[in-house]
Structure formats: C-alpha cells, structure tokens
Design a protein that fits this description.
homodimer; 232 residues; 2 domains; 6 helices
DNA sequence: TCAAAAGTGTTGTCCGTACACCCATGA
DNA sequence: TCATGGGTGTACGGACAACACTTTTGA
C-alpha cells in the first residue's frame, strides 16, 4: 500500500475538542472509554485515521457521528507527536477544536466501540484525570480559543442564531475569564456593525426581556478580519 | 511494532519553512530534489519521521543537518493530510516554520540523499512550481508569520543580535507588505522599552551611521505578551 | 559639497475605560 | 410592589496616524 519507505510506518489519529455553550457555561464533550488502555476514564472524542481518509474529513466524520451535526466551525490547532504519548505504540494525533450550538443537538450517540457514554463537562470542572495526554490537548486548545476570540468572530458559532447581548457578553467573560463592563461591551459590539438587531425579544423570563440579535456575516466579510478586536 | 490496528498504518513527515532576512529581503530555504517524484524541482526541506522519533525532535534535526544551527525559534503551524497530496502514497506532513539569522550560517549542507543543492529564495520570487503541495504550505506558513509578527516579538529572531531601527522597520515592512511611518514606528518600538540601546554604531556605511540596539528579553518577559502589538 | 540615510515633535482623532442610575417585565 | 436583569451617556487619558525638516557622515 505504501511504496515509499515501509520501515517508517506510523499510526495517526484525530482528537476533537468540542466546545459548547449552555446556560452560561462553556463545556466540552468527553467520552467514557470502554477499552484498554485507560478503560473507564474520560477522553476526548477521537479515532484512528485510515490510509484512505483525509484528516479534515476524518475530523468532520467524528463530529458527525457523535453529534449528528455537519458544517461545523472546526480547525486543527496542534499535533501531538511525542513517541511515548500512547502506551501501546507510536500514535501521532492531530487535535481539532469544534464550536457548536449545544441546543441544536438532539442526542449524543457515542457510536465508536471505544466509548460507553458521552457527556458534556464544564471546562472548569473536568474529570481530574483524562486518558492519554488529553489534558494537555485541552489546555493547548483552550488557550487557542481564548486568543482567537479576541480577533475573530468565533463566539457566534457557540450561540444560538438569535441571542441577546448579555448572552454574548457572558460567553466572552467565560472564555476570557474576566468581567467586562456592560456599557463598554455593548458600545463596542454595536459599533462594529456586524450585529443585526431583530424585532424579537427573549421569551419566558421573569424580568424585562432582552432584544435579540443575529450575527451579520455579510457585513463582517466586508471588514478586514484583522482590523477588529473583540472583547478587550 | 504497532500492536494497535495494523491496517491503519501511515507515513508521516516534517516539512520546514525556514525564513531568513538578509540585505532587506525575506527569504526561505529550498532544496533541489534529486529523486523522484518531482526530481529537479525545488521543495521545502523535509523528511520522513521514524517510529522512534518525536516530531519536534525531527524538525530540529532537519534544521540542524541543513544549517548547522541549534536552539532555533521554530513551531509547527499546520498539518497537511489530504489523501492524495503525495503521488506515491499516503503521507501526512506536519509543517514547521523556523526563523533564523542568515548571517550566523557558515554554509548549507543538504545532507539528505533527496537533495542535490540548497539555496535561499526571496519570498516574492520563488520558483514557479514547487514540489508536492509545498506552495500551499508556504502560503499558509507565511500567513501565520504575518499574523504572529503583530503580537509577538518574533522579528528579533531574524535579525542579527545588534541591529538598527531601520533594519527592524524594513523587516516589518517586508513581512507586512506595507510602508510604515518612520517616526511612529520608532516612537512605538522605543516606548515598549524592550530594546536596549548600545554604545555602538553601524560600520562601513557611506552615510550617517545608525545606532545599534539589542532585543532585551528580560524586559519583554516582564510584560504580558498579549498586551503588545507590533508594527501597526 | 553632495548624496544618503539618521534622527526628531506636535497635533488631531479615535478607542478604551471608568463609572451609576432608571426602565420594563413577570411573579 | 418588588426583584431581576435590560438598557443607557459622559468624561478622561492613551495610543495611533499624519506630516517635513535638520543632522551626520563618507565619498
């Protein structure tokens, strides 16, 4: 199959950091392993990649099988390739993060044979030990998201289509891990001109209902990405 | 050797974008292939990685063998893993960039059997066709560098230990591909307080000699990385 | 003395920040 | 009517952008 240099054969895999935002909490999706090594421990969803599958395709497939979602914002962020990271042999893994709207998911299907269940964990309350080097993968990926949210409009991938400014601000606060000033936050966001105000309001709340907004991709595309900084 | 799932065996490699700055030009190092596929074409320096070698180690090794340099600023920036990117089989490649001081190199040694020569190319004047998907790798990597130079002090990795402000500004201009205002650039750079003014001046120039500076890593470390933006 | 690049300040504008109160709503 | 979060404006300071002339040096 590989006419090049057969003595250099390695296994590689994809691992996915799947972020979701729900009820003011930022969460990631973990699976509970049903196989050695690290049986019964929680791990990032991932899978070995076959010879005949592109890595981005593999990442999308894993996400789809687990959540039923397609066309999701996702990107690779790092490769973990130390020799001893997998106890059973050399496995290089390409780490991806994905940002999804939790409320768009009907149910989780941990279809891989490796997993007995899947569940959302608040990022501040992860299991103490994760399988393999998945804790380092999480740390590195979360760091990337933190940086990215300051200059790209990725927050909108995590929110429902229609959201209030308070929701948006909460998300920034959770990711950046600091309080932001309400007035300044709103002024800045609205000034960008990338939010479309809707004729709709929150429903079912026992206080003054907030206006809802939608992210306006067309207007955003007109601006140079690098000219904006979010959430400072 | 690999007890996991032998049907999933793949080959992976490292490819390096090695940047250097010399006489006002930003350059990368290419090798001329001496083997099929793509014999006689220019390519990024790279190599297959063995089962028993970590990927970061492999990247450092390749750079050392080619340039004789160690302890170089380098980082991975993307994985190219499409199935058909290598005509002879599935090869996933991890792309690294490295920033080096050209004038610290005695001579290039294209020690790999794949290469018959190595040479520096101005990034605006690369060979029209590069081997494999190396043109895409270059494009992606150069984009990263561009972004990175705006919020991390990577420019100093490309300059000699002692440099003038004009040299520094030229480097920013070449990477960002735009003219910067001399007074504003100097004011901003000096304000950061991360440059140490030396008691030395340029030599051998037929005009007023410029003061030389050194990057002060200690002072830089005291500031939060993310608080600075360079070259805007 | 000429050519070539070094070096130097001021002003206006915009953006970020700090800060506190009234409003609308449902229970 | 109360509790809860929604929604709003102003004033200050710092950073960025625009802009042109004098100085130094070696040839």
């Amino acid at each position: 199959m590989n006419p090049i240099l057969p003595q250099f054969e390695s296994v590689f895999s994809i691992d996915c950091l799947i972020f979701g935002f729900d009820e003011g909490e930022l969460k990631i999706l973990l699976i509970e392993r049903n196989e050695e090594p690290f049986k019964d421990l929680w791990a990032l969803p991932g899978y070995l990649v076959g010879n005949d599958e592109g890595i981005s395709h593999a990442a999308e497939r894993i996400l789809y099988e687990l959540t039923g979602l397609r066309d999701i914002f996702m990107d690779q962020f790092y490769v973990f390739g130390e020799v001893d990271r997998h106890p059973q042999g050399r496995v290089v893994t390409v780490a991806y993060y994905a940002l999804i709207r939790i409320n768009g998911i009907k149910d989780l299907k941990p279809v891989t044979s490796f997993a007995k269940s899947a569940s959302w964990y608040n990022i501040n309350n992860l299991p103490e030990i994760l399988a393999f080097d998945h804790r380092s993968i999480f740390d590195k990926g979360f760091e990337k998201i933190k940086q990215k949210i300051s200059y790209e409009p990725i927050a909108f991938e995590l929110l429902p289509e229609k959201f209030s400014l308070t929701q948006l601000q909460n998300l920034y606060e959770v990711i950046l891990n600091k309080k932001l000033d309400k007035r300044n936050f709103r002024k800045k966001m609205l000034n960008y001109g990338i939010l479309k105000e809707l004729d709709e309001k929150e429903k079912g709340v026992s206080y003054r209902a907030a206006k809802l907004y939608r992210f306006d991709r067309r207007k955003y595309a007109k601006l140079f990405k690098n000219e904006l900084t979010f959430g400072k």
